[in-house]
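Our platform keeps sequence and structure together, in a single record for each protein. Such a record has a labelled line for the sequence and another for the backbone structure tokens. Nothing more is needed to write down the fold, since each code stands for a local backbone conformation. For reference, a complete record is included directly beneath this paragraph:
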Amino acid sequence: MNKTEPKWVSGSTPGADDPASLSASAPGADITEERPVVVLGGGPAGLTAGYLLAKRGKPVIVLESTGQVGGIARTEVRDGYRFDLGGHRFFTKAKEVDDLWHEIMQEEFLRRPRQSRIYWNDKFLEYPLQGMDVIRKLGPVELTRCGFSYLWAAVKPKRREDTFEEWVSNRFGKRLYQHFFKTYTEKLWGVPTDEIRAEWAAQRIKGLSFFAAAKAAFFGNKGNKIKSLISEFNYPRYGPGQMWEQMTSDIRSLGGEVRLNAPVTRIRLDPGAGRVVELVAGGETLTPSHVISSLPLRTTVGIAEPEAPGEVRDAARGLRYREFLTVLLVIEGQDLFPDNWIYIHQPGVRVLRIQNFKSWSPWMVPNDRDASIGMEYFCFEGDELWNMADEDLVAMAGHEIEQLHLARADNVKFGFVARVHKAYPIYDVEYAERVVTIRGWLEGIANLQQVGRNGLHRYNNSDHSMLTAMRAVDNILLGTHHDIWAVNAESVYHEEDVEDEQPYVDAPETPGMEQPLASER
């Protein structure tokens, strides 16, 4: 064994001691330097698990496949400019998550005002809606048209509500639907709104109607009852990446290890014992006591050895994801707008949302002369947009920012592209059944727990991902039996804890689904 190599790197025989007998004793007694806890993935969930284990003095290795921690919540850095992929507000009602955020960031955690507006017809509309602003921006003629459109829908609603278009039009009128729902939703999901289910609209726009919107517009959102309308949030001074970088540093200072550029290529199982006995990552073999994985379910199934049963592999192949890419631009001149981000409801452009990083934190931009923005495009891995050359994407973004009359294309100093794989797990009509099949197989592996967004194939925020990791660590160290799949930070925000509705009438066959599982390549 190399002298600089941790003692728990492979070289020992998996069966040298009996892990089953060790795990039957006090919780965590089977964690040794020879058999550390191995965490797969260096995003918010994986780093949370690694930090909490290292803080308790437990040997732990966090494996990150890329050269940067943070996953889809990472911060890209170019020439002193910092770019947040997706825009990440740090707001939660899960106190233990909030406490951990402050423990890590301390005085580097800023309190920031939330401002985001809708950009429509070359106008900014305040969001949350403000009554006089809506009246002024729509103008009396268009406002009258929208009012009559709503009244017509109220008097003669469509009897069937099978699609998003029908559901929204019945509650807001056709004209408001076309202005503020149609374009944005189609860009988000990649299909026409008559191919999106009414049930999804009912869940996502729950409790909101023409009158509810008008009430919020004129009387405000008292008590922050609607999560998406909070007025303030916390934010690391130098972007979300600062939190994950600090957490990585803390793990290392506490005796743990975080390895970059260490993709996991094999999860070796002992089918008789129902345990992970070895992991292969970055060309090395590790012998774990426990495994906490935030790998996508598709990947976990694909790299298992021996292979998962056929029905499990079929289920993994059927999981769908929606990707997005961000074209990150530095533009000479003053800020384009004061908002953290704006929602682009204007037809004729492909951009969905535009981030203004200086408004997230002034420290994201190294000078007062430039603006830095992120233009977000949603797509499927392998489609025309995803495969477009970076220079073409930068040129398209420059053209669109000028088309929107927000900046001149020739003022773009430089730009680059960041692609986010598997950003949004898709809830199609069969996803729940597929996940149940995979979960049934996973439950036969005693020392493996899946956590995080892609680890559970659930669209959630960073606070939920971190909470799943906290519960997984509790299961290992305290002997609790938390059902990680039932952990849901969102239930704090809503009165009812219900299953997420899938959006598609008929889910699209994505190019990514045609790719083989990892073990088939």
